Amino acid sequence: MSFWKRWIYKQRLKQGNVLNYFEQLQKWQWLDQKALKQLQEKRLSNLLLHAYRHVPYYREILKESGVITSKEQVNLSSFEKIPFLTKDIIRKEFEQLKSDDLNNREWYLNTSGGSTGEPVQFIQDKEYSEWSHAIKLLDDQWSNREIGDKQIRLWGSERDLLVGQETTKVRIGRYIRNERWLNAFRMTSEQMKEYIEVINKFKPIQILAYVESIFELAKFIEQNKLTVHSPKSIMTSAGTLYPYMRETIERVFQTKVFNRYGSREVGDIACECEHHQGLHVSALTHYVEIIKENGTLAQPGEIGEIVVTSLTNYAMPLIRYRIGDMGKWAKGECDCGRVMPLIEEVNGRVTDFFINSYGKKIDGRIFNTFLWHRDFIKKYQVIQKNYNLIIVKIMLNNEESVNPEIKFSNDLNNIKEDIRQVMGESCIVKFEFVDDIHPTASGKYRYTISEVR
Ligand SMILES: [Zn+2]
User: Fold this and answer.
1) Are 70 and 93 in contact (CB under 8 A)?
2) CATH of domain 356-450
3) Are 29 and 142 in contact (CB under 8 A)?
4) Domain boundaries, the chain
5) Cα 353 to middle of ligand 1, angstroms
6) DSSP structure class, residue 297
7) Rounded distance, CA 390 to CA 366, Å?
8) Dist CA 243 CA 100 (whole Å)
9) For site-directed labelling of 33, which of 161, 180, 205, 260 has its Cα 20 to 30 A away?
10) Ion ligand 1 — residues with CB under 5 Å?
11) Average pLDDT value for residue range 412-438
12) Taking CA 337 as the corner, what is the angle to CA 25 and CA 269, rounded to the nearest 5 degrees?
């Protein structure tokens, strides 16, 4: 059965360009620095020229910034003069951002959640979608999964799950691709037990999962002393992978974690190779910049905002798009020999950064170190309401705990003191004990949120 499934899957892929693109990506990953740079510049120039000729929003911008010269040549040295693209601009300029040749393209609408919850719509085309698929195949190959190998997805997007339930076509597609989907959106103890049974029976080569969900499942397995099938790899995505999470997941599943970074707007941007020394940017499909607070390009090791230009979506080019994540370049090169730029780590959402009463920016991840190791806490979320108010939502491990304020007063006082040390002595810290902490609509779980901007 497995042989035929694989065969049908490959036949399907052959109907489009996915396998061709996959082959190209496989070759491109071994280009040397010079060849990679040349090809990247060529692909970036092609996109810019297309945007100039076919996208009203970019026509003036590219001329004014000097990227397109009077002779319609591309001058990449002016690339950094192109103003950043934001979700707000996409919302406002939606019509102007459409390419005027959409009639000749197979395109579709896609949606992503905004930072304030309101979704933003954008257009992608078939070529983009096929490139995105090819990137996934390469990332899978890095993590020991070949085309058609069994995969379990512990996935949480409401939209994806809805699509999965609604159409038979999607279900058949998953069957052919040898994928099994588990709903990561809300995981009760009962559901987690079921999931472990599914994993043990299906024996996937790879598990693809939301960081938070697979971490949750790993903790559950360990706490209940259950046994679980060990896949060849676990690919994590959609969330910040903290070192303690990686350790727990790898220990419980007895396998390696490969972290991937992507978004709905531009697809998968970067992924770890078998050496796990950072995330390689897919440099011929994505042009990535990291920008410091003062607007200049970040050097390796310096934290900044990640800005992405998708090189494959001509239907609605996203050029210098502020994706809303912070990150930094790795200082060295990866031992694998691939020279594609290396992101050391993605440090979370821009809104994960807090601002204390002295105006200093605080990396929200610090709060995790105050909370994650405490046994009585199942889930938590730290929310900055204003300069002097922090709310800590806590979901208890033992649901019957009466009066947690008294029972865990020592821990809570410690947490309070730690937070005040970072945020300032005048900061008020309030605890709220809740039944559940829900992920965002996209299924991503957020540990820290600052509402101060
Ligand atoms: Zn590598």
Assistant:
1) no
2) 3.30.300.30
3) no
4) 356-450
5) 29
6) B
7) 14
8) 46
9) 260
10) 273, 275, 334, 336, 338
11) 91
12) 45
